[in-house]
Amino acid sequence: MSLTSIPTPEQIKRLPKAVIHDHLDGGLRPETIIELAKEIGYALPVNEPAALADWFYEACNSGSLVRYIETFEHTIAVMQTKEAITRVAKECALDLARDGVVYAEVRGAPELFTRKGLSLEEVIEATIAGYRQGEVAAKAEGLRIRVESLLCALRQNPHAQEIAEKVVKYRDLGVVGFDIAGPEDGFPPTNQLETFNYLRQEDAHFTIHAGEAYGLPSIWQAIQMCGAERLGHGVRIIEDIDFSGSKPVLGRLSAYIRDRRIPLELCPTSNLQTGAAKTIATHPIGALAKLRFRITINTDNRLMSRTSMTNEMVEVVKAFNWNFADLQRVTINALKSSFIPFEERLAIIEEIVKPGYLAVASE
């Protein structure tokens, strides 16, 4: 076998992976939610792990925005103490490591976890502590992972500048960048233009959720007005490509994004839930990969989408007949696009990713 071979699901599981778009409050273990809810007397829809996992998945596939939002209300509700946040972050790191992830940037909005009196600093520090504990626990199992934190602001709330300042404060302590999430329609990223200017002046990294629920104007603003280094999702850039002729023709914006190698944080399974595609087989990732955009594969919300990096890779392999080399390319893309220093990205690629892919592909 070689890198041009088609990997099996078992081989994909063993491949080293990188994820740069994963939400902490969207990846809890159902068992943990139940235990934390019991500790604080919080009522859940169901109290059996498998049934609760089913409930989250079905709610997020219901087509009801109300039910989708409700799922996060439950996970956020049980993450209002330092101990709970640290536990969730530790388990996140360990679960990713068990799935073969060697590098992860996990994002969370600190303001969501201050309802019971925690400060933003306490939330951030508890999260970082959890990731470090998870790395140690993974090492004890013979696994290797590095997890860094992205701090999210919510575009509908007035805290973006404060969160950005925390990114700068903690950037050498486990926080590598800033993100803005929340509803795209009606809340353009330019509303926080001063915050993005501040981040650039501080030489701080940031990504922006754009081109998922809203279309090309969201992407254009994120890149050309706000200066985003990456696009959170960005899947709707496909709307700026004309496929009607014998050869795809890129529009000005899509050509700019491809030419500048601006990373797209694609989340195939999640994109199905939000309506960006009807099936994995029709997801834009296939066409964007052929056109050599800098695409990455990500999980978004592992609990809500009932997914993992292995699952995402298995699905695109089945849909597009990708081989080892294709999966290696998107993994290297993610690491090249990460917010850690260049030398550290390169070390992970050269020490773990390339040897790991070659070893599995050569079996």
Automatic annotation (TrEMBL):
Q: What is the uppermost EC class here? A: hydrolase
Task: Identify one Pfam family in the record.
Answer: A_deaminase
Q: Write out the catalysed reaction.
A: 2'-deoxyadenosine + H2O + H(+) = 2'-deoxyinosine + NH4(+); adenosine + H2O + H(+) = inosine + NH4(+)
Keywords, in A-Z order? Hydrolase, Metal-binding, Nucleotide metabolism, Zinc
Q: Per the entry, which co-factors are needed?
A: Zn(2+)
Give Gene Ontology CC terms: cytosol
NCBIfam families cross-referenced by the UniProt entry: aden_deam (TIGR01430), PRK09358.1-2 (NF006847)
Give the protein's recorded name: adenosine deaminase
**UniProt organism field:** freshwater metagenome
